[in-house]
Design a protein that fits this description.
This protein is α+β, with helices and mostly antiparallel strands. The protein is built from 28 helices and 27 strands. The radius of gyration is 29 Å and the shape is globular.
Length: about 800
């Protein structure tokens, strides 16, 4: 049966997707799978035609079983000790990454494969799983290497990330690598014993360490970081501007080991085999051995393994003369990977690599034919880029919200020198171990190529219109897109007329339908929508987005900046784009503290901001950074009573520092009331007791939603303030496991006493309120978030049973 592999894989994927929604005993699932298997065997034995239905059912149930099985946590899992201060004992499972902090200290990252855990009672408990350990130490101290036995003490923290729509799931990515917890420690409580025995992993790790050392000695640190990223994968040490330019031109995948690298190594090996006049089988075997060695050299990380498997499957098709079956081989490969790790289905790297490869396999030849009016070399370069981009367009729209038009030019201009860079860089890295002078010469040549690549990429990224905005589309939109793509490329049954046939047979009706679709699109774009107030998860900080009926946007606070991680650019901006926000009418900062204003400059760099409203205070470094990148003519200072109206949504400054006795710190926080119809929201920043007293003295109109001040600190949100505003809902924007202990139990107790329903960004993720001015609904990113601590507090309040909070 020609499509049995595709049918089985589709059913297996559907089973994985449905697993979290189907709660059935494992025994029942196994019995159902056995029934489908028996039915399929009976049908095959009888020679019946309709075996596919049984196969579909069998693989659907198998997908559910496999996903459920993958979610079972080992009784020895190290995550059992999360949120405890413990000692971990194990081995270094990956080559450590180090970064200089200053001349005297460095920070490092270790992946520790845990063998045992010691609790505060000095008991040693067997454990399994890996922990990501961050360590700061003096630059002159010795460092643990791959395979060394280590012991570290510190607080073990469960994996957690910003929980917002369309954000890449870094927690799942780490779990796919076996990393299930984090620990921050110091050199005072971290010790190691050098590895005494040898293994193939330690030998490979030694090779990689030697290569990294030779590269660092042969070129500048910035060039070394780029070459190391291209050869081994990872952005460690690469300048943010370079990463931005690669992303803007659609080449960011080059900075992680992918199918491109495997294909290039295989291509060089195939060329070498042809030059040596080897037979077809011998050439393919040489190519297979080359990509296996390269994959080992690159570290056998999950993305490398996926690319390796796909490469070996493709070479097998070449050896067997079954190139036309490459899509079926690709689907079979995906089935094997998902059977091994079902969680890959939710991994962006897997989704993009599979989608791009499928696009090239299915669409490349037909795209080249459609571009036959161009020179063959140019048609091929454009076709491979277009086919890959068409294969992943809905995914790109969902995760990134932009399409790199410049990728077509970049693939023509930049890819050839990158291919030369990979070959020269690999040659220099390997040759340098035996002929140091020749290896250094090749690496210097690689550095020159890196300079050319970086400059070309920057020039192309800066071209006008290099990227275009793509609105996010959900599963239904994606299904419609792929259905249209299959129709245009002729993959639907023959009885379905092709696009050209439709135009020829029904020109008038086709034009009428197209006109109706265009009219409906304009109506959809301009028809008034409900007002939405988004409390974005930015960790230990604040950021609130308000969108009006006609799509105008106001952002109140922008989160912070953590070391070299810009929350504004990497968390807030993707969130805004996901919801169709490409410009801001107003950017309002409650005050200049880092956790509220640190991301403002990153936001202003990414999109136009028409007006900025600031607190009356001495400008902090975060505010100064914002003023350097924005038009100061649109900047004004807040005053109490200041009023702005957009599409009927009112923004009123309820409190500002103009009438405060304090001119710095939390007390200068602007308080913004957002009102639409009967519903109103109070955004309080980090307002303290003095500000609350001043607002109470002037009188506070009640409202429905309170953004709790200062992340739930006990000095804010007094009982008197709560009684005056009388909210139904409260949102606490707070970081997971933050060092301040926010939100405080006293604050939660006061909210419970007023019967206020509380949402927390550390538990619920992004919280979105939707209103038409008469009714109010709320939706959280994390559905059914754990709320035991809050409910436990509710039960302590007399007359307020926990069931009322559900």
């Amino acid at each position: 049966m020609p499509n049995v592999v595709t049918i089985a894989t589709a059913a297996f994927v559907a089973g994985i997707l449905c697993a979290s929604h189907i709660r059935t005993e494992m025994t029942v699932l196994v019995l159902v799978a056995a029934a489908f298997f028996s039915a399929a065997m009976w049908q095959i034995n009888r020679g019946l035609r309709y075996v596919s239905a049984s196969v579909l059912g069998l693989f659907f149930v198998a997908g559910i079983i496999r996903f459920d099985h993958s979610m079972v946590i080992s009784p020895w899992d190290v995550s059992r000790f999360a949120e405890q201060t413990v000692g971990i004992h194990g081995t270094v499972a990956e080559i450590p990454e180090w970064k200089s902090i200053d001349e005297e200290s460095v920070s490092g990252k270790y992946v520790i494969a845990v063998r045992s855990v010691s609790t505060d009672k000095d008991r040693s408990n067997p454990a399994s799983g890996s922990v990501l350990v961050t360590l700061t130490q003096a630059a002159n101290l010795p460092r643990a290497a791959y395979g060394d036995m280590v012991t570290g003490y510190g607080k073990l923290t469960a994996l957690h990330d910003y929980q917002n729509p369309a954000r890449m799931d870094n927690v799942s990515s780490l779990r796919l690598q076996g990393i299930i917890a984090r620990m921050a420690t110091s050199s005072d409580v971290f010790s190691f014993t050098p590895l005494c025995s040898y293994s193939w992993q330690s030998v490979i790790a030694g090779w990689r360490q030697g290569v990294a050392t030779r590269i660092s000695l042969a070129m500048a640190p910035s060039d070394a970081a780029v070459l190391t990223g291209i050869l081994f994968g990872g952005y460690f040490g690469i300048k943010p501007a370079v990463i931005h330019d690669f992303a803007s031109t659609g080449l960011v995948h080059i900075l992680s080991v992918s199918g491109t690298h495997i294909a290039l190594v295989a291509g060089v090996a195939m060329w070498l085999g042809g030059w040596l006049s080897l037979k077809r089988t011998s050439t393919a075997s040489l190519a297979a051995a080359s990509i296996i060695v390269y994959a080992l050299f690159a570290g056998l990380t999950p993305p490398v393994i996926r690319s390796l498997v796909m490469g070996l499957v493709a070479l097998s098709a070449v050896v067997l003369g079954r190139e036309k079956d490459s899509f079926r081989a690709l689907v079979l490969t995906a089935l094997g990977m998902l059977a091994y790790q079902p969680g890959l289905l939710y991994n962006i790297s897997f989704q993009l690599s599979f989608g791009a490869t499928a696009g090239i396999v299915l669409l490349y030849e037909k795209t080249v034919s459609a571009l036959s009016f161009l020179p063959r070399w140019l048609a091929g370069a454009i076709a491979v880029t277009l086919a890959a981009q068409l294969g992943v367009l809905p995914l790109v729209a969902w995760y990134f919200n932009y399409f790199p038009l410049s990728s077509f030019l970049a693939n023509i201009v930049v890819i050839p020198p990158i291919e030369a860079l990979v070959v020269v860089g690999l040659a220099g890295s390997l040759v340098g171990a035996w002929v140091p002078l020749l290896g250094k010469f090749l690496l210097v040549c690689a550095a020159l190529i890196i300079g050319v690549v970086v400059q070309l990429t920057a020039i192309i990224a800066s071209l006008p219109g290099s990227t275009v905005y793509l609105p996010a589309c959900g599963p239904i939109g994606g299904a419609v897109y792929y259905g249209l793509l299959a129709w245009i490329y002729g993959f639907l049954p023959r009885r379905v007329p092709r696009p050209q046939e439709v135009l020829d047979r029904w020109p008038v009706k086709t034009a009428a339908v197209m006109g109706m679709l265009i009219v409906c699109g304009f109506i959809y774009l301009y028809y008034p929508r409900p007002v939405q107030v988004h409390f974005i998860d930015v960790g230990q900080g604040d950021s609130t987005l308000v969108t009006t009926p006609h799509g105008r946007a106001v952002l109140i606070d922008c989160g912070g900046e953590l070391s070299d991680f810009d929350v504004g650019a990497r968390v807030v901006v993707p969130y805004l784009r996901h919801y169709g926000v490409t410009s801001l009418d107003y950017l309002i900062l409650t005050h200049g503290h880092q956790d509220h204003a640190g991301g403002a400059a990153g936001v202003a760099l990414a999109m136009p901001v028409r007006h900025v409203i600031l607190a009356r205070e001495k400008f902090t470094p975060a505010v100064q950074a914002l003023l350097r990148v924005t038009d100061c003519s649109g900047v004004r200072l807040a005053t109490t009573g200041q009023w702005v109206s957009l599409d009927g949504v009112e923004f009123i400054v309820e409190h500002s520092a103009d009438d405060s006795r304090v001119d710095h710190g939390n007390e200068v926080s602007n308080v913004i009331r957002v009102s639409y119809g009967r519903e109103s929201f109070l955004i309080t920043g980090d307002l303290g007791p003095l500000g609350e007293e001043q607002m109470l003295s002037r009188g506070i109109k009640p409202g429905q939603v309170l953004k709790v001040a200062h992340h739930g600190a006990k000095t804010s949100t007094s009982a008197e303030f709560l009684r005056a505003f009388a909210p139904r809902y409260a949102v606490i924007s707070v970081g997971y496991d933050n060092k301040f202990g926010h939100p405080e139990r006293d604050t939660l107790r006061r909210l419970a006493g007023q019967k206020v329903r509380v949402y927390r960004t550390d538990q619920d993720g992004a919280v979105v309120f939707t209103t038409d001015g008469q009714t109010l609904t709320v939706e959280t990113f994390v559905q059914g978030a754990e709320r035991e601590n809050y409910l436990a507090l509710l039960t302590e309040v007399e007359g307020w049973p926990a069931r009322m909070a559900k």
